[in-house]
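Possible regression after last week's pipeline update?

I re-ran a chain I had predicted before the update to compare outputs. Posting the input and the new output here so someone can diff against the archived version. Not blocking, just want to make sure nothing changed silently.
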Amino acid sequence: MIRHVIRTTGPYRRGGCSRQALLPRSDAFALPLDCWRSPMKALLRNGRHARRLQQRGPFAILGCLLVLLGAHAYAADEDARAELEGLRRQLEELRQQRAAAAPVASGVPLVDRNLDNRYGPDAVATVRQGRLKIGGLLQVWFYSIQNDNKAWFDVDAWAAAVGEPPPVPAGSNEVCDNDSFRIRRAELSFAVDIHENVSATILLDPARAALSFPTFPSNQGSGISGDGVANYNPGTAPDGTPTGHIRNAAVREGLQDGSRVLQDAFIDIHGVIPRHRIGIGQMRRHLGEEGSRDSAQLDFAERAMIAQWADLRDTGIQVHGAWFDDRLQYWVGAFNGAGTAFQQRQNRADDNDAKDLTFTLLGRPVWKDERWGNLELGYSMLYGLAGEGRHRNPLAAPVDASYQQDTVRVMQYAWAHYAPGGPLAGFWLRGEWGLYRDRFAPFEAYPGLIGSPAPFDIQGWYFAAGYRLQDSPWKDSLPRWFRPVEFVFRYEDLQNLFYTDLVGDFTGMEDRRRRLDVFKTTVFTGGLNYRLQGHHAKVQLNYHWVNEESDVSRSFRQVREVRNDHLVVNFQVAW
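New output (post-update):
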């Protein structure tokens, strides 16, 4: 509360009046009469000064009253203005809220609008128990392949060289060089956190059921597209009946395999053992670098030839440990390992008591360093026992459900990845080597010709490099539309072409029918990626120059180079 001080000019303390009086603003002139009377008498004794005070005193007092009243009125007026302005703002806010709440004509149904509001970005779906996260990956391809009416194995030339009728007709290759659109992947994943230590994942991919598409990046593979590019059947049915090409019936009838739709179905236990996770169920075995990478994050439209076998799922258990901000990691697992060479392992019963054991070690000596970038090194191994037969010729002593002779199965991978920092930021290099040892089932390779094939060992490797403009130090000087471009290159080599051994000792017919020669395929890939939204929305354009190894120096090996260079365009959306 404001108080006014009225000072006197002399020691007037009569009548209980002090030298100064402190009064509230509202009582500024409500002084006791004695306080006024004492100084007034003193001034009257001064003559002229007394007369002046008598004449001017009332006017001075009146002026002070007017000034104080005006100030009080002005303050009250300011308070009223502020209150009025506040009311105006509140009224405007109410008008805006009413306008926002008013229905707006739209072509979007009310149900869709409500779903958008409820299941928008990062929203968690409501389920009976736990929290559900839904993800997906859609890849739409268009590919165009050079036309060649003959495949890699020239059966007619072989028959002419040995002077015998061809065991199978020459494959026309017509079913493998047609230009086509394709749904490469249509993954839909459901991950639920059911407990702080327990979660579960299910991944479905209906596109994996298709059996009629050619393999990539070489269309000479005998198996299912995406499972590898090994060529081991020149065109016969399992009983040796000529078919012209192993894929003819699948293309004519659009065959599918429903057991391939279920990709992942596992329970994840975490938080029980520090820095460890345990997966139980069907999942991707962690083998190699590119084989274990998420399909949405591939640098090229398709994995390298040697890495495709590592992408196969199997049923079992896998433990993952990580330390030092994921700079040191390991995986160890045990899986069913059902089937023979190049067959799928997923969603099927095991065919023996043995299990495939897997181990992977990953180290990152340099990681997230602004100057030196990222360096990753790793090694993987699978060791298992395939088959259950005890006889060299399983057909002579068959075992229920398995004609394959006991075989040690081995897969190995070693890789390195480096992405420098500093002025070289944007560049990246990858390299990977792999080895695969297994055995075909009787008459699986060259049906009707090889009844008891021997084990095989094949190797392959690739080197890849790229430059991502978005990560380069001079990206700000580029046009915005050009920054998402990434240039990529890959060279790969794989022993994938299996040929019956016809140059051995012809007197040992049993040995002749067991051994397989293996030739290789090399592929140069060049292209670019356009990342509209990282890996969530991108377009990949790859051109593949494919070369099959051919050896015409020996008359018994009639193999040829196939005209099968091709273009692949991948349109991808991931969420």
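Follow-up from reviewer: compared with the archived run. Residues 1-33, 104-108, 504-509 have pLDDT under 50 and may be disordered. Marking as no regression found.
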